Every structure is written in C-alpha cells, then in structure tokens.
Amino acid sequence: MVFRVHSFELLKACIEDILSTIKPGEDDQKKRSYAIQELADSIYSVGALRGATVKPFGSFVSNLYAKSGDLDVSVDLWSSSRIPISKKKKQNALRELRRALQIRGVARSVEFIPNARVPIIQYMSNQFDISCDISINNYPGQIKSRIFYWINTIDERFGDMVLLVKEWAKSQNINDPKNGTLNSYSLCLLVIFCLQNCEPAILPPLKEIYDGNVAEETVFYDEKHVDEICVANISRFLRQNMGQRNQTSLPRLFASFFSQKLTVWGSCLVYHVSSAIYTGINNWLMSDWFRTPVHDAQVKKLRAVFRQLGPFKYSDIHLYGPV
C-alpha cells in the first residue's frame, strides 16, 4: 500500500499545535522544582538518609520532557569507599524513604519496586500532581541525562522529534518498560539514530560527544567534567560542519523516522519500523484540526488516530509537497 502526504504544510501545522500543547511552560518547570524540594524535605526527616543529596535526572534535566512527563530523581548517598553501594542497601534506603513519604502525607499511589534492575519508588505528589520515580545513586542515569541535555543544544529539532515520538509511543502503548516495551531513553536513542543518518548528518556519533562508559556503575559523578567534554566535542562538530547544516524540515524528519527501517529489539520481539506515515493519516491531515485552537481533546484525537494504525507496519511511502 502506498500512502501519500499531499501537503507538508498541513503536517507542519498539526505538529506545531501538538508541540504547543505538550511542551511545558514556566509553571510546569516550577512545579517540578517544588516537587524535588518536597522530596528533599522528606529525606531530611529520615535519620538514615541525612547527608544524602537529591539530584533530578531524566527528561527534566535534558529539557526533553512533556507536561505530563514523569520526574526522575536520584537520592545520592555519600560513601567513603570507592565501591558502589549494594543493591540491598539501596532497597533499605528506599524503604526508609517510602515510610517518610507516607508519614508526611506528601505522596499517594506509592509503589516500591525493590527487585527491578534499578530499585525504585514510584509515587504521585499530592500537592503538585506529578508522577515521581525515585532511585538511589543513579549516576549512570544522571550522566546520560546530562549528555542528552548537550545533544539537545546542537539542534532544536532533536527535542521536538523526541516529544513527538514519545507521544506516538504512548498512543501505541509501547512506552512502558514494566510491560516489556520501550522506555523513554530507548526512544531518544532511536531519534538520535534517525538524525545521525540524515544527509548531511544532524547529529554526530555518540562516541564523538562523550566516549566514557555511561552504563558503568560508579561511586561518583562529576557533572562539570561531563559538561566540559560534551561542550568541547560539540563545538568541534559544529565547526567542522559549518555551512553544511541540514535544512530538512521537522515534518519531513518526523516522516523519515518511520521510513528508515529501524529494527528495535524489545521483550523478545522485533518491530520493523518502515512506514513514514500510517493508515488513516490522510483523514488526520484533512480534518478541521488546524482551524481551531488545539486542546487536550485534540491530543487524544491524535492518539486515537495513531492507535488505529498499530505500532509498526511495512508500507511504501511517496512524499509530496514542499519541504
């Protein structure tokens, strides 16, 4: 089957409306900052956790979060040794934290997941209505988040692509690692892959930005050191590619994400992504969506259209219209 996009201008208008709805504003940023302080205050009330520091990471730090996004926070315990603290100690610290959250009444729907690869507590902040994921000494997560922050400074299309792809993944129910599907970090890597394979490339290979081992368990995270490496390497990439900036529009990049025949391994399944736009896209593009201000109901409409299409399908694609 061949799907045709007759006007990228319509797709552009739709994307802009969606982004304007899901992108956070200053109030959203403040709410997350207050929720972090709320967690810090709870920690200070626990004798076993005194001296710990609270470090946000994930999409909030990378500036890749949507209004409805979760808040990832690492509670960093001080250690005098050069040996990472044990998983059992992390579990015990989270149990103490769970008790403090419940005593202070700041959280609801508290769920302790001790046997995950990275033990976490998940809860919803009562005051700020934000879903929070709390882990202990999650230095790899902090490093990855900081690297993504700097990648996001290379080209603004990266951040927009991440938000759009996350929104699509939610509509397909494939953005839930607890159920064996893709986490947000994996989706970001797919977007990076897409932008690395443009001609000319929008993003360089990750090893040219930071060549350290981001997955290694560490006992210390030097944010300043990571920043210095990323800034120097990104500056070099931008100098080397001066005058060769990829001019592809965001709508075409979004389409190309689904046409690169990405192979994603997850939960013992192989998803082949090779369709640029899905079944029903013409109905979406030709709707009256662009004639009225977008709101939550319209975001649900986008998800409903995506849901009809299935997560991944093979198709040929012919793209029409101006860039």
From TrEMBL:
Domain Poly(A) RNA polymerase mitochondrial-like central palm: 13-149
CDD domains reported in the protein's UniProt record: NT_PAP_TUTase
InterPro entries: MTPAP-like_central, NT_sf
Signal peptide: none
Domain of life assignment: Eukaryota
Pfam families: MTPAP-like_central
Protein name: Poly(A) RNA polymerase mitochondrial-like central palm domain-containing protein
Organism of derivation: Urochloa decumbens
Lineage, highest ranks first: Eukaryota, Viridiplantae, Streptophyta, Embryophyta, Tracheophyta
